[in-house]
Specification:
By secondary structure, the chain is mostly helical. The protein has helices at residues 13-40, 48-57, 62-87, 91-114, 118-139. Mean pLDDT is 80; it is low at 146-158.
Length: 158
């Protein structure tokens, strides 16, 4: 008897789009974070991207560049965790994304009030759509699938 074939699970288009968005943002931020840390450690990466980045932050103190690099790496880790979790359609990733994205909305509104630009409007709109969409998916129990319930009941011995 051969292996049992189960039908392939179809991903929701909206979740896939958000996951891809988070993964791309996380990947880019990972590159920026590493570039800043390498610059602080005086490791010559000798690429155009790193050189352009260094010119932009050249006025900062080395300590500030290191902090910015470490914060970038931390935020990249969060975005990558969100992206991978959303790709897997697990509910914890949707909750994490809703909380982390919602936490930045007041800052985006403040920035928009300070200086209104098209990219800032688009960023705020996209983040609001992400939060509303994920909340709707969570309320309709469309995330988590077989992962929604724990495999191991609380208190189960092993």
């Amino acid at each position: 008897m051969g292996p049992v074939m189960t039908p392939a699970r179809r991903h929701q288009t909206g979740i896939v789009a958000i996951a891809a968005f988070k993964l791309v943002k996380g990947g880019l931020l990972l590159v920026v974070g590493f570039a800043l840390v390498l610059e602080t450690l005086h490791i010559n990466a000798d690429t155009r991207f790193v050189h352009a980045l260094v010119l932009k932050v050249d006025a900062l103190q080395p300590h500030s560049i290191l902090i910015a690099g470490l914060v970038s790496l931390g935020y990249a880790a969060l975005l990558l965790a969100e992206g991978i979790g959303l790709w897997m359609e697990v509910s914890w990733a949707a909750y994490l994304t809703v909380v982390s994205t919602s936490a930045l909305i007041p800052f985006e509104i403040y920035e928009l009030i300070e200086r209104t630009t098209v990219p800032r409007i688009v960023l705020l709109a996209v983040n609001l759509m992400i939060v509303v969409y994920l909340i709707k998916q969570l309320k309709q129990h469309r995330l988590g699938g077989r992962y929604r319930k724990s495999r191991w009941p609380i208190g189960a011995g092993g």
